[in-house]
């Protein structure tokens, strides 16, 4: 067989691969010598090909044993494709409407074939930069988060199922270490990878590296990230891992998945929305001051959390007599107690969410990988103004998060930054 | 080979086993037909044989596929012996003075051969009931806890080593589930296994089952137990898992070991000392009012925590430039910050310790397995008085633990219970 061992594909060899795999060729139909193949990987790590045939299409994603945007000098296990495929299937099982279907996985080739999210699907981040409203976004993403996180947690699962799954995902350690480095470490120390809008943010970057209060808090969050196996999290749920149309929301790219703290996913999403919010002033032109759009982002933040909480609670109530081992029905056996327990649960989860979300914002301003929302603001002084506001908020929230009890208070804090 | 598959041994077949294993026969020396073999398993789960030969001795512990004190009606994987052996070796590596040496492990037979802790070693719990002071106990047990917990945590280890070890110990899930049931669940619900000093504690047991505040807190602790892989904990560190003489302290029986929260071990030990303290009034006879002995127990509680903290801190400072990934030296790079971070670390750990310790006390009074300290008080009304005090304290501490900042405040709270 031509593909009995790993080899990186290109537009040409991909055709041979598709021909050799019936599950794929049958999807595309007709004359396989007439495929349209286009590499579109705008992400940081992998190669992504859109393959269009006479009667069907698909996307093929391949992991190479290094980080694409850096090159072979930064090796990274291609086994990440395995964890991505397992997670796409597991999350897809619990939330099929918001995760692309996996057609085929080849561990040897570190290759996933999945549904092509056809136009007008675009990466959410691009839509946010363009100022496009997605009226169903909060509804959809809260569905995704509530279902994937609830069903992979001990509220739904037995300890036996949980520990088995936790053990397997311990194997995705290289990707966890990458997050540890870029989110929890590099921004707080001198690192060759860090950069920021210089000279405007020179002092701000230095202040982050010298802020003892921040370092105490980031240590707590890092230990939660490393030690707390609360649910199968996506692990990289920023607005660049979501594809949208007016009616559809699809979560892609869970290669960083592992059993970690739920707040890391929810925080990633909300933190990136906050970055999008602060970037708007840099995108305002003439008439279009983006004021209404900023309000829509804030509303989406608030709705996302509130809908998440509502849906997660509904799942909890629905399955409260099931085989989940965290809250046994014989103990949590009256409605007031159920309310009390859930109140505490979401209070703690909001604090985690705000903490992780803030950490994600900080690292996007003074760490290695920035966001296009801010990078695309051409005027550096304008960009720096946006970044300073986001950084100010993130530092405050990271340190003071336990004082917040409701998402509306977070939104007010965002709004109050000038 | 006679032992190519599992079979339960007895005093007779044990001789054949020892003869067949050179590592064992060579330890015992001389005429192997003249061995003295005695089954001494007073524990709940396994069989333990003391084997004495002409020029040496050893202990052989075998796990059967059920819980000994209940019988074959409660099956329990014999693989627990594997996790016990791995942990004895790992903990022994970091604290050889306080862990018996493993001579031989046979996974097929679920059999561990280890150093015989010869007389005058006795189980610490028995010494506490007899009112014997062990002046080095706090010194030794704090050595054990500081070394085993520090060296298996992310303060010392890399994420890669950590996740690998976590994954392996996910395999000890049956023992974790047993703890979940008997510590975090059964006492808070009606269970056929629960019992208490009836009728004296009937209302108290019912109050535990109806205490919503307690149930909210026990849920948080249970989720920490199930989700937080902080270090390789012993998992059953009560005073019946420690053997002592005036000069020696040895920790045995880590079959419940897994990567869990450190406070579960420290709390188990301190909680059982508190039970021993409250039991003393039931053992006072005539002249010997046990007043001084109670003071020694309180001092041992305080010393154990303070010495643990001191030693753990010293290890942390010693290895702060090592390969541990929780606190990178480039970030935690000044003495004030190091102090700040450690202060928070031990504050959180004290709260965990008090929480888990209280949960362990509660389950020993109204759950399935009680402690000899209290059970050996023949007069049930006297026993009930001791138990009510312990239960009162444990409930208060479990709910109010976050208000305590120092072990001396805990000791005062113990002392103030009348
Ligand atoms: N199923 C899909 N359908 C359409 N486009 C996709 C699909 N998966 C990925 N893409 C495109 O490829 C880009 C990179 O994919 P991604 O999975 O994020 O890779 P990386 O891991 O390298 O970040 C996405 O930003 C998106 O534009
Ligand atoms: N290494 C040893 N040396 C001497 N006695 C031991 C040793 N190990 C166990 N024992 C004795 O056997 C008893 C039961 O051992 P333990 O390991 O606690 O078994 P279990 O898992 O059944 O509780 C202990 O209480 C102690 O009296
Ligand atoms: Mg991506
Ligand atoms: Mg990716
Ligand atoms: Mg024992
Ligand atoms: Mg035991
Ligand atoms: Mg460093």
How much of the sequence of chain A is in beta strands? 5-15%
- Mean pLDDT of chain A comes to 96
CATH class of the largest domain in chain A: Alpha Beta
| Domains of chain A (count) | 2
Share in helix of chain A: 40-55%
The CATH architecture of the largest domain in chain A would be Alpha-Beta Complex
Q: Helices and strands of chain A, in N-to-C order?
A: HHEEEEEHEEEHHHHHHEEEEHHHHHH
The strand line-up of the biggest sheet of chain A is 1-2-3-7-6
Instruction: State the distance separating the first and last CA atoms of chain A.
Output: 62 Å
Oligomeric state of the chains?
A: homodimer
Name the biggest interface: A-B, 46 and 46 residues
Counted beta strands of chain A:
12
